Amino acid sequence: MIINLMNLKIKYSFEPNCRSGFNQSHPFPEKITPMIEYVNILTVEGKSLVFREYGDAEIDQDLLAGFLSAFSGFMKELSLAEIKSTQTEANQFFYTLYQNVIVVICAGLTDVPEEIKEKVDIVSRKFADAYGNVLKEGWNGERSIFHEFAKVIDDVILGPIKVSIIGYGGVGKTSLLKLICGKEVNLEYIPTITADIANYNNFLDPKDATRSVVFWDFAGQLQFSMLWQSLLKGTKLALLVTDSTYQNVTESKKIITDLVKKYYENVPVLVIANKQDLQNRLSPELVEKLLGLPTVGMISINREYRATIHEALRKEINKINQKEGAKK
Ligand SMILES: Nc1nc2c(ncn2[C@@H]2O[C@H](COP(=O)(O)OP(=O)(O)O)[C@@H](O)[C@H]2O)c(=O)[nH]1
Ligand SMILES: [Mg+2]
After folding, report:
1. Averaged over 35-49, what is the pLDDT?
2. Which residues contact 119 (CB under 8 A, 6 or more apart)?
3. Alpha-carbon distance 13 to 10, whole Å?
């Protein structure tokens, strides 16, 4: 069967997509964010159940509808759970039919097919797990029951938001992580990379909490080794903790110049001027001036500061979501 999708003239702009920040000369490139335009989950009759848009390209809804009805026609011939792909001049489409539901991912031409296929596979299986029974037992046509699934799609497509807590030993990194997560989360210690990892996003407004947020707290002295550079890979936000002594703030400058600026230029850094309860501490304003980065004053061992760090995190995560999150 030959389907000429080119005839459908799906119109997308050819604007280079800058979401990845990828640079050939970069020794530790951020994991390249796939340039996924959208994910669509639809019935074999062509009725869209969930539509999640990520790309910046304008999607012409009429053309999309035409495309989908053509699509659902030949999808019926697809064997179960097989993942197929097709290409237009601007995009690659990957799709599957799984338990009577079609999952389509529209990706960019440079995306790695195997990676997108894997995402199609995960999304279709998760959708079947969540709604297979509802659809089998007669769904009432109400699309709102699928709204919740947007979070699952976001996590599969965009991945969790990695927040790395960096800074020298003893400045209060682990205390800060505990303050952020409270008693609700048990830290998971990963000995091989000597890091505590916590998956926690309860500080977000439920409507903004579409992706999980994973905190990485690296134990031990921060050294500018190759290992550190690779551990930070994929970081979307760095919390640079200092104990607010003049000496530590000055030394922390090195972390910024030798590590962050060199390898993670596009990663936002929020400085935590910790131990504000101690004498001789520098004020957050002064720390901000010395380091040239936005700074929040903190006492990580004082629970009253939980709201302060949550508020700061909310702002930063919302910025990340605005930049790379789903459009709707
Ligand atoms: N006075 C004071 N002590 C703190 C504060 N934050 C952490 N500490 C203490 O500093 C020490 C080192 O903290 P820790 O979180 O283990 O630092 P890490 O090595 O950066 O993970 C511990 O004894 C903490 O109780 C703070 O804001 N004020
Ligand atoms: Mg620690």
Report:
1. 88
2. 34, 36, 94, 105, 156, 157
3. 10
Q: Is the CB of 244 under 6 A from ligand 1?
A: no
Q: Which pLDDT belongs to residue 9?
A: 32
Average pLDDT for residues 176-184, to the nearest whole number?
Answer: 91
Average pLDDT, stretch 129-136? Answer: 93
Indicate whether residue 281 lines ligand 1 (CB < 6 A).
Answer: no
Quick check: is 128 in a domain?
yes
Query: Residue 1 domain-assigned?
Result: no
- Domain presence at residue 251: yes
Range(s) of the domain holding residue 241: 7-32+160-324
Q: Would you state the structure tokens that stand for residue 239, as one six-digit string?
A: 């919390």
- CB of 36 within 8 A of CB of 52? no
pLDDT at residue 78, rounded to an integer: 64
Cα 270 to ligand 2 centre (Å): 18
Q: How many helices (H) and strands (E) does the chain have?
A: 9, 12
